[in-house]
């Protein structure tokens, strides 16, 4: 009887969204990167709703050690970690339900990952590699919807075929998903083939789904002003960011145009994050620390290359004193930058021209948090032709001549041309 009552009182759809405070900015689920410490940091910089990393449902149920690594008593704490959506990948409804039941009282919704495009998802038969198995997806979602006291949600990717994308979204909603997050890229668009998410498809889906459907958009968020542009162009309820947040938590800051919030100094952000990690319980926040150091400092390390091997050789299990030395080293180097007599002229954010996809790239000083652009065939993504999901044409950047008063991107790229490929390879290797 209690189970039936809990289901009857369960908030659904728009009611559940309103109960969460109608969040507009959402931290995406990122494997090993949206853990507790990062969620706390992101909330401080404007994330109003956070997703956990993707948890493997079967392992979460059957392996106590895995569950202890992924989840601590602080996760889902009402004082520091709500509202919260816990995401699982799964291909077995029974294991998915058992996993969800373990955290049902510590979160606001359970999300099914249908968007992971990585090889491990192909091998494990989950994430975006369920996109050909609609019957299984329907059963996974329906099982949660019929048995949980909290809402079930789903995060999906699109097909190049707009109508198939719409049918897919409708099926997910018919199964019982109360919110739907749609990433405007296809399953094939990942890594160096990432390209641009298609907001036109997102708008089409939004327009052709029920008008009261809670709809989150994901893709192409580089800077804080992209959030409002995405919301306006897609008419979504909220905007999710993954990689944009990962390299700059300030991407969610929309309260003001404060560059110290939107593009924080790396020494300030690193210190704040490090202090949070020291206060967090459990394994996940500590094990993610080194990858987060690399990502927060990615532009800084292209100039201060001597720090890269120092961070790389320091174990995640090393004492906090060893990591403190790295943080202090960064603080010292940035302090020297601000001793320059012309620092006010150097420390500026410069907007580039409006691109054909509607936004613009910014020139951000290397000592401030900023987006990361992959190098593909020796050329940065923000200076090359980009494929748009669901379209045949490539979109060309016009930012190769963007100036910051001192140097252009072309000049900076020339200076760093010898280390681009090596830096990407080393960063990927050191983060493992």
From TrEMBL:
The keyword Cytoplasm does not apply. Its EC number is 1.3.1.88. Signal peptide: none annotated. Residues 26-314 form the DUS-like FMN-binding domain. PANTHER family: TRNA-DIHYDROURIDINE SYNTHASE, TRNA-DIHYDROURIDINE(16_17) SYNTHASE [NAD(P)(+)]-LIKE. Belongs to the Dus family. Dus1 subfamily. This is tRNA-dihydrouridine(16/17) synthase [NAD(P)(+)]. It comes from Spathaspora passalidarum (strain NRRL Y-27907 / 11-Y1). The lineage of its organism: Eukaryota, Fungi, Dikarya, Ascomycota, Saccharomycotina.
